[in-house]
Write a structure and sequence with these properties.
Chain lengths: 172, 315
């Protein structure tokens, strides 16, 4: 199903461009969600339904909601949009665009090589993913677990503070 | 061709259940509170559904001038769309399923987590401080309870060795998973109530403190979408509970499988309404503290014990 792959890739690229060019942070985040959903469909079309589902659950469903949560809490209003407008001027674009075009050129050359990898569509089941995670890559999984634990301990430490004067409903 | 009929049938049945719940909920609430409820329009007051729908359609559809227009219009559609997508993976009877995905359970979890956007965006786009507070509460509540919802069904996955919902139902031929996974069932149901933000967990809308929370600025059919989305969410969670813990379509042979499925689902819908009729709303910090400090450890212990027993039986 290469057609599905190309359509969703196009959507992912367009949505990502919209993320960069929006002035309002919430609109940009919405386009980022669309981009993640498109990437999930790419995974699905390449025969990785498990990765697709996790992409939606973790990135689109949890992480982006947290991003949105924080953006809402600091409540960036019209001023931020104006500031963004000032920052996003044409001359800022020139450097990154040139570098990206170079990368694009390299990628096209690589893709045009005769022995380039074709789109394979062997379906990877959840069982295979778990077998390789807890068999072959078990050390990597445990190390990532350590890393996450430090994050949690740090967050708990920063978040923990005694309230000096409690609300009267919370006393006793 | 048969596929299209199944899709249309599922849409027809569930949209009608959602509309019919307007009447069912009011009559049942009235029954449990010792009143009569709506009983004037038509036989048994059934036409209240029609009256309510007409009212929703003909109210002024007002977009406040200070709102973010595009996001304001988009938000109510997300909840209905995500819940209807979630219904696609549920097997109603052998062969009657829209999409028999091999990651069906994960697909359901993904769709229910996308539903959170509707509250968050609706509250943000309204540009009103009560709505924003409702949206903040909604976001943190949904994120927290999604975690337990996902973890609570992993015990079922371990026992049935599949994410496919048809396979999960077939694994319950001999004994329903509610017997082998009682803790998982209770936590899944609590998380389901929190995901659909129904009373007692309707903290994002909390009439008494936030007026209507995230949908305070909505009127007409846009409010109607939130309304229908909530009823569809109840039906979806009830159907999922039945599929995963109460044997889905399985039942004694004197009734067809579909009838068994819907009978069980209706029992859970009634339980949702009974919860609303009988429980008070907890405070916001109590809800989150209860989730992270009690439910999360419980669900992890459940997972550990299930895994250990499954390994022991296999060896």
């Amino acid at each position: 199903m290469p057609l599905l792959f190309y359509i969703s890739s196009l959507i992912a690229i367009l949505a990502t461009i919209m993320v960069i060019t929006r002035y309002s942070p919430v609109h940009a985040l919405l386009y980022l969600v669309v981009s993640f959903l498109a990437i999930a469909v790419i995974f699905l079309s390449l025969g990785a339904p498990f990765a697709a589902a996790l992409q939606v659950i973790i990135y689109a469903g949890a992480i982006m909601v947290l991003f949105l949560f924080v953006t809402m809490m600091i409540n960036l209003g019209k001023q931020t949009a104006l500031q963004e407008k000032e920052w996003l001027q044409l001359k800022v674009w020139i450097g990154p665009s040139l570098l990206t075009l170079l990368l694009l050129g390299e990628m096209i050359i690589l893709l045009l090589q005769p022995q380039s990898a074709s789109l394979s569509s062997a379906v990877v089941t959840p069982r295979q993913v778990s077998m390789s995670l807890y068999g072959e890559y078990v050390i990597a999984v445990e190390l990532v677990g350590f890393l996450m634990m430090t994050g949690i301990v740090g967050a708990a430490h920063i978040g923990k503070h005694k309230k000096k004067n409690l609300h009267r409903f919370l006393q006793s | 061709m048969q596929h299209i009929w199944i899709v249309l049938g599922v849409l027809f049945v569930f949209l009608n259940i959602a509309a019919g719940l307007i009447w069912v909920e009011r009559r049942l609430l009235a029954l449990w509170q010792d009143r009569l409820g709506p009983n004037r329009a038509g036989p048994l007051g059934l036409f209240i559904v029609l009256a309510d729908t007409l009212k929703l359609f003909f109210k002024e559809d007002w977009i406040p001038p200070f709102a973010d227009k595009q996001v304001f219009v988009l938000a109510p559609a997300i909840v209905v769309a995500s819940v209807l997508m979630g219904l696609a993976v549920i097997p109603f009877a052998p062969g009657i399923v829209v999409a028999d995905l091999n990651v069906g359970l994960l697909f359901f979890l993904a769709m229910s987590s996308l539903g959170a956007y509707s509250i968050v965006l609706g509250g943000w786009a309204s540009n009103n401080k009560y709505s924003l507070l409702g949206a903040l509460r909604g976001a943190s509540q949904m994120i927290a309870y999604e975690v337990f919802m996902g973890l609570s069904v992993m015990g079922v996955v371990m026992l049935s060795k599949s994410f496919n919902l048809t396979a999960i139902v077939e694994a319950q031929q001999h004994v329903w998973f509610v017997v082998t996974q009682p803790v998982g069932f209770i936590i899944f149901f609590i998380a389901g109530v929190a995901e659909t933000h129904r009373l007692p967990f309707d903290i994002p809308e909390a009439e008494s403190e936030l007026i209507a929370g995230f949908h305070a600025e909505y009127s007409g059919m846009k409010f109607g979408m939130f309304f229908i989305g909530e009823y569809l969410g109840i039906s979806l969670i009830s159907a999922m509970t039945v599929t995963m813990f109460f044997g889905g379509w399985l039942g004694p042979g004197f009734l067809p499988p579909v009838v068994w499925f819907f009978l069980k689902t209706f029992a859970f819908i009634a339980l949702f309404i009974l919860l609303r009729a009988s429980l008070p709303r907890p405070r916001y910090d109590q809800l989150l503290g209860y989730g992270w400090k009690i439910l999360l450890p419980l669900v992890l212990v459940n997972l550990l014990v299930t895994g250990a027993i499954a390994l022991w039986i296999r060896s």
